[in-house]
Amino acid sequence: MTTLVMTGTGTDVGKTVATAAIAALALAQGQRVAVLKPAQTGVLPGEAGDLAEVVRLAGKDLTVRELRRYPDPLSPEAASRRSGLPAVGPGEIAAAASELDAAHDLTLVEGAGGLLVRFDSQGSTLADVAWSLGAPVVLVAQAGLGTLNTTALTAEVATRRGLNVVGVVIGSWPADPDLAALENLRDLPVAGGAPLLGVLPAGLGAADRETFAEQARRGLSPWFGGEFDPEAFTAAASAQN
């Protein structure tokens, strides 16, 4: 049984799509898959959040669990403070993840924002959750200019805290990549101190389930059950531009 912690270099980097893509490949292999969202912010009760998107894209044969929901689009700590709703801490998150892990082949824990976004007033973060679980971290990064710094900062913090970043996934690859994006295919593994384990096309979240599954297979490494080859992808992308 395996638990992976999904984090990003910031918001809107494609973390939910990457989580759904990994889940879709695992489901296609017949695995029992769970996705845990410790804190959903910016979504009202009854509205569809990130987990609904994961189910829509990956399939209904998933176990999903959300521990807290806050209406304001803020960090979990700030959203909890403004709403008066209780915060969620690393102990509760780790306990939920461990419970899911015991009954599933793969459990994905999707954070909110980046690795050091605070869950509570004690300063607890997703890094604390990953450390308490002893779980590998998948780092979802942007493609273009500026991503090397945020990727390197996240990876350095993870390493200093004793975490294992197993790979980098580009969550939204542009249809017409610029020079920075093309060079980042080579530089992101250096910045992240881990291999490039996938590149997912921009707009993939709008695909139907069949197309999504096919793109997930093409865009993710055999490490996840896909076919992505970083050297072949880099060569092909460079040749087209």
UniProtKB/TrEMBL annotation:
Cite the active-site annotation: K37
Question: By its UniProt entry, which Gene3D superfamilies does this protein fall under?
Answer: P-loop containing nucleotide triphosphate hydrolases (3.40.50.300)
Work out whether the entry's keyword set contains Ligase: yes
Give yes or no: UniProt keyword Glycoprotein: no
What keywords appear on the UniProt entry?
ATP-binding, Biotin biosynthesis, Cytoplasm, Ligase, Magnesium, Metal-binding, Nucleotide-binding
**Matching InterPro entries:** DTB_synth_BioD, P-loop_NTPase
Residue positions annotated to bind Mg(2+) are T16, D50, E110
Needed cofactors, names only, are:
Mg(2+)
Catalytic function, reaction form = (7R,8S)-7,8-diammoniononanoate + CO2 + ATP = (4R,5S)-dethiobiotin + ADP + phosphate + 3 H(+)
Q: Describe its function.
A: Catalyzes a mechanistically unusual reaction, the ATP-dependent insertion of CO2 between the N7 and N8 nitrogen atoms of 7,8-diaminopelargonic acid (DAPA, also called 7,8-diammoniononanoate) to form a ureido ring.
Similarity annotation: Belongs to the dethiobiotin synthetase family.
- The name under which this protein is listed is ATP-dependent dethiobiotin synthetase BioD
- The gene it comes from is bioD
